[in-house]
Amino acid sequence: MSNPDPNRNYTNAALRIGAPDPLPDRPAAEFISIVSTNDWVNDEYKLMVVDVHEKAMNAKGGQFFHLLCPSPDGAEVWMRRPMSIYRVNEESCQLEFLYKCEGRGTVGMGMLEPGDEFNITGPLGIGFTIDPAWKNIVVLGRGVGLATLAPLSKMAADRNVGVTAILSARNPDVVMSVDLFENLGAKTVVVVDSDGGSAVENVEKILEGLIADGKADAFYTCGSNRLLTLMKRLGAVHDIPGQVAMEQIMVCGFGACYVCMRTFEVNGERILRRVCREGPIFNMQEAVGW
User: Where are the alpha helices (DSSP H) in the chain?
Assistant: First the structure.
């Protein structure tokens, strides 16, 4: 596939390619990791822990690895699967991935057993950032987005930044990451569909309360368009910066194929950016949709 012409109009919205890569020399490599554990955490999600080379330990929260998942049925799996890092354990030289078994790649991944080799490439992309001036942040995630946002608890703890994590799910049985956030000092608020607590109106009240209490220097979100829209609106009204973790189908993971293009609005103009290279963490106010 040829690279898109940056001067070409792609639609009536005048889409164009985004800014050049701000970090062109990010180190990444292909590793043969060894599966340590690969266990179910509930009826839908599994947690895989892999032993990796020490060079993979430069991974940061919000970055991802491109996983060469085994085939679950004998047919070839053509593309790697991008997966955000759930946790980096530097002491044991291990990476953790929390994932939902639903497609052929992740179903095949779920079949791996302790001792199996697992080909991974990374770390890739741009991770989360926390401004030194921020004292308290709000994390709002839903479903698989909770796995992507989980590393923020460690980043914040290392910087003595307070965290309120609002964790949204269909029902209490599939809420994840509560222990991870709480063990690192975060306050967690669980909202679920089954009792109406995850309704936008209720979540908005929670966020407005945190803003009023001075507990919202920045917003972070992943996993839901409606939650992204809510945080964007409140962030614009109260002048609160924010970051969103995007997820997208990818092929190369390095920015060469342009398959993972998404639309962003910058200074009133709509542009295209590669999720794998310019992201997957983006300015919340520039994101058009999750």
Answer: 104-109, 145-149, 151-158, 178-183, 200-212, 225-238
Same domain as 234, residue 159: yes
User: Is residue 142 classed as helix, strand or coil in its secondary structure?
Assistant: strand
| Structural domain containing residue 98 | 29-124
For residue 225, the domain's CATH number is 3.40.50.80
**In this structure, what token pair is assigned to residue 203?**
């979540």
119 and 145 in one domain?
no
**120 and 142 share a domain?**
no
- List pLDDT tens digits, range 120-154: 999 999 999 999 999 999 999 998 788 899 999 89
The torsion defined by the Cα of 132, 177, 36 and 125, in degrees rounded to 10, comes to -40
Tell me how far apart the alpha carbons of residues 137 and 156 are, in angstroms, rounded to a whole number. 8
What pLDDT, on the 0 to 100 scale, is given for residue 10? 33
Q: By CB neighbour count within 10 A (0-12 exposed, 13-18 middle, 19+ buried), where does 53 fall?
A: exposed
CA gap 76, 54 in Å, rounded? 30
pLDDT at 290: 76
Q: Which residues of the chain are under the pLDDT cut of 50?
A: 1-17
Are residues 83 and 109 located together in one domain of the fold? yes
Which CATH number goes with the domain that contains 64? 2.40.30.10
Which residues does residue 45 pair with via DSSP β-bridges, in sequence order?
100
* Same domain assignment for residues 141 and 119: no
CA distances from 289 to 93, 177, 227, 240, 265 (A): 35, 24, 10, 18, 10
Token pair, residue 111, equals 């079949």
DSSP state letters, 64-76? EEEE-PPPSSSS-
Q: In this structure, are 87 and 36 located in the same domain?
A: yes
